[in-house]
């Protein structure tokens, strides 16, 4: 049985690419969300095994803020995928437990390694 993932990415094309990557490494994509608020509700409702999360999202709730909210009810592993190569943002992101941080563009082997890292820590 494949593991389940929720992808949170506001770029529609990248969301499709991430979905294909997740499928190729054995994940079923439960949902894709363009914003942080939607991600919080979706993760709470669907209880995935993993979240792949952009940091800068379409609404005014960042991926980091969304994960902090999700952490109040779930310790689901998260892999942040972002174009933000900023030390302060990276530091804030990794303060969320059970997380990994990748810079765009991401290759499937990088995603797979990050997923293995957060699953091992879970």
Automatic annotation (TrEMBL):
<dbReference type="InterPro" id="IPR001789">
    <property type="entry name" value="Sig_transdc_resp-reg_receiver"/>
</dbReference>
<dbReference type="InterPro" id="IPR052048">
    <property type="entry name" value="ST_Response_Regulator"/>
</dbReference>
<dbReference type="Pfam" id="PF00072">
    <property type="entry name" value="Response_reg"/>
</dbReference>
<dbReference type="InterPro" id="IPR011006">
    <property type="entry name" value="CheY-like_superfamily"/>
</dbReference>
<dbReference type="GO" id="GO:0000160">
    <property type="term" value="P:phosphorelay signal transduction system"/>
</dbReference>
<keyword id="KW-0597">Phosphoprotein</keyword>
<protein>
    <submittedName>
        <fullName>Response regulator</fullName>
    </submittedName>
</protein>
<feature type="domain" description="Response regulatory">
    <location>
        <begin position="4"/>
        <end position="119"/>
    </location>
</feature>
<feature type="modified residue" description="4-aspartylphosphate">
    <location>
        <position position="54"/>
    </location>
</feature>
């Amino acid at each position: 049985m494949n593991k389940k993932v929720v992808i949170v990415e506001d770029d529609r094309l990248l969301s499709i690419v991430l979905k294909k990557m997740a499928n190729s490494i054995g994940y079923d994509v439960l949902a894709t969300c363009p914003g942080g608020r939607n991600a919080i509700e979706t993760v709470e409702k669907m209880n995935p095994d993993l979240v792949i999360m952009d940091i800068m999202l379409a609404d005014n709730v960042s991926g980091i803020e969304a994960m902090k909210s999700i952490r109040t009810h779930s310790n689901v592993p998260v892999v942040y995928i972002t174009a933000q190569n900023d030390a302060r943002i990276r530091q804030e992101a990794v303060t969320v437990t059970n997380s990994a941080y990748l810079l765009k563009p991401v290759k499937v082997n990088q995603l797979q390694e990050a997923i293995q890292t957060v699953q091992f820590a879970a």
